[in-house]
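In keeping with the milestone schedule agreed at the kick-off meeting, the structural modelling team has produced records for the first pair of proteins. Each record is given below as a sequence line and a structure-token line. The laboratory manager (R.T.) confirmed that both were archived under the project's standard naming scheme.
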Amino acid sequence: MKILVPLIATLFIHIVSPHGSSAQFGRLFGGGAEIETIETQQLSDLLNQQKGGGDGAKKADPASDFVLVDVRSDAEVNVSVIPGAITKAQYEKNAKLYENKTVVVYCTVGGRSGAYAKQLAANGVKVKNYKGSILQWVNAELPLQTLDGNPTNRVHTYSSRYRIPAKYEQVSQ
């Protein structure tokens, strides 16, 4: 009881404090900016509209009003990406190029991209999270490509517990 009262008092002070308690307790209570999400069909439509202006995954179309960023690991993106995507490293290296664009982020299922989206939003970036991410994309049986722009049916699923349509080859290591 001696420890509980000071702990509760401290927590209360931080919660009612005008000095950014949400920043201090954001992870504990799920605080932070609410991130808008994008659905598979919306993303597919945007990418179809963008076609013809860029060269696929090599770089995003500078004339487009959005950029698709794959936040997965190098091992994952080296297997395949959603057509038109750039890697997180490419985005961060050329962030100035995308300053006035909406950044659409994705990963395998949406967790890592959600965390990265919150980070970007905290820095003033207009961002959307493709919450279903690449697994939702392949479940809709949409195309994939390699980083050099070649079509592929391989998809890194991070774990063999995920099931994907038979037309894709699952890579989990």
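The second protein of the pair:
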Amino acid sequence: MLTWKEVINFSVKGNPTPNKRVEKTEAEWRAQLSPEQFRITRLKGTERPNSGELCSIYDEGQYNCVCCNTPLFDSTIKFESGSGWPSFTQPIEENAIKYHRDTAFGMVRVEVMCNTCDGHLGHVFPDGPEPSGLRYCINSESMTLDKETA
């Protein structure tokens, strides 16, 4: 189970090696993704709080990267954080997520990205529930829910 200390360590010293890499040109990403998905995942945007389709869905399944279909989170670790975005306590695998120190907007945060394709997902914070204490705050537009893996 990942802890905040390990998340910070990844963001400073380097991320775990992904199982595979997916790299495409900007034109290829634009052709594949909706304009909103492209803005969020490739341009590091965010959606308005409580606007994402996956915010209030708690169906069983696996949340995959909208860009490359890499499994990111399992529905069993999703929780209602009150933040306005889907929230999770752990990635499905330690190497599914890439961590980057984010100093935009005059604050220090840890950005989370798909470790396979570098798609922006959201941020992780140390204010989640036990036992990990982590809250992965993820944009709905950056994921798909695969109910077949339930």
